[in-house]
Amino acid sequence: MKQEEHSTSPGRKKSSAAAIAPGGHSAAAAATAMSSYMTAVQFLQQGRFEKALAALEKLLPSAPPEIVERCRMYIATCQRQLERPSLSFSTPEEQYDYAVSLLNTGYYEDARDQFAGILASYPNADYVYYGLAILDAVTGQTQECLQNLARAIELNPRNRLQARVDNDFQSIVDDPRFTELLYPEVS
Predict the structure, then answer these.
(1) What residues make up the domain containing 33?
(2) Taking all residues of the chain, what is their mean pLDDT, rounded to a whole number?
């Protein structure tokens, strides 16, 4: 009886190990590294240099060879940006204008930080509560929006009139609490 030979065709190796991507990394590790890299680049593009730097420094030791140089370049960019002097404002109104510009460009977390910074020194700045109310409306935080708007109106009743015509509150215009806040004389 002839013994059958079991073989694999040339170029096909049976292996229980994970697929290896170029550069000697497993495909899963390379995919994870690329995902981490893209997140870090996104932080960089958003101007969140501390987060980008931390992500890139964590990634660098295990980065696939094809992105190592880019990681080093972005690390250097983050370090330069972080060495720049921090923003300084002559007045709280200047800082408020900056916070509003951040809000308008979608940097909500940074805008909130700027508003909080003003309130730390000027806790009765009605316009800051108004700005926070807008930020909360835009980010879908209805309860916080109503609280901040109520505080803004309490500090300066003219904010009630402004809010009545402000399109930034469109997301809560149908909320009865918003109507009660803006039109207390109707209640």
Answers:
(1) 27-83
(2) 86
